[in-house]
């Protein structure tokens, strides 16, 4: 009988607002961000806690990868939304 272990959850979310990815990249710290719009339209944000990777798009859509539990996805999305709202970056 095979043992199944969840290693990686991929989830999507919608913040229902537009994002200025250039402003966000400078605001949340370039050390955790990769943003090269001429190569890929999304911004890669490596969150430290929970340890996940978020792809943010100008449309307000997010893809979360690297979580091992659904709770980590929820925490990451809530955390990034709060951070963006506090800095006035979610329109």
Give a brief rundown of this model:
This protein has 2 helices and 5 strands, in the order βαββββα.
Q: Please, could you describe this protein's structure?
A:
This protein is of the alpha+beta class. The protein has a single domain, classed as TATA-Binding Protein (2-Layer Sandwich), CATH 3.30.310. It contains 2 helices and 5 strands, in the order E-H-E-E-E-E-H. A 5-stranded antiparallel sheet has the order 1-5-4-3-2, covered by helices on one side. Strand 3 and strand 4 form a beta hairpin. The longest helix is centred in the C-terminal third of the chain and has 17 residues.
| Rg from Cα | 14 Å
- From the 3D structure, determine the CATH topology: TATA-Binding Protein
Total of helices: 2
Order of helices and strands: EHEEEEH
Gap between N and C termini:
50 Å
Model regions low in confidence, pLDDT < 50 over at least 5 residues: none
Structural class: alpha+beta
Main beta-sheet strand count, sense and barrel state: 5 strands, antiparallel
Q: Briefly, what CATH class?
A: Alpha Beta
Strand order of the largest sheet: 1-5-4-3-2
Overall number of strands: 5
Number of domains: 1
In CATH terms, the superfamily is TATA-Binding Protein
Q: Give the CATH architecture.
A: 2-Layer Sandwich
Q: What is the overall shape? A: globular
Q: How much helix is in the residues?
A: 25-40%
Strand content: 25-35%
């Amino acid at each position: 009988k095979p043992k199944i272990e969840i290693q990686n959850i991929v989830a999507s979310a919608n913040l229902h607002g537009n994002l200025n990815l250039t402003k966000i990249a400078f605001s949340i710290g370039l050390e955790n961000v990769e943003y090269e719009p001429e190569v890929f339209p999304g911004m890669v944000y490596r969150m430290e806690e929970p340890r996940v990777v978020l792809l943010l798009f100008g449309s307000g859509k997010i893809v979360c990868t690297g979580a091992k539990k659904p709770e980590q996805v929820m925490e990451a999305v809530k955390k990034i939304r709060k951070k963006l709202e506090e800095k006035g970056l979610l329109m």
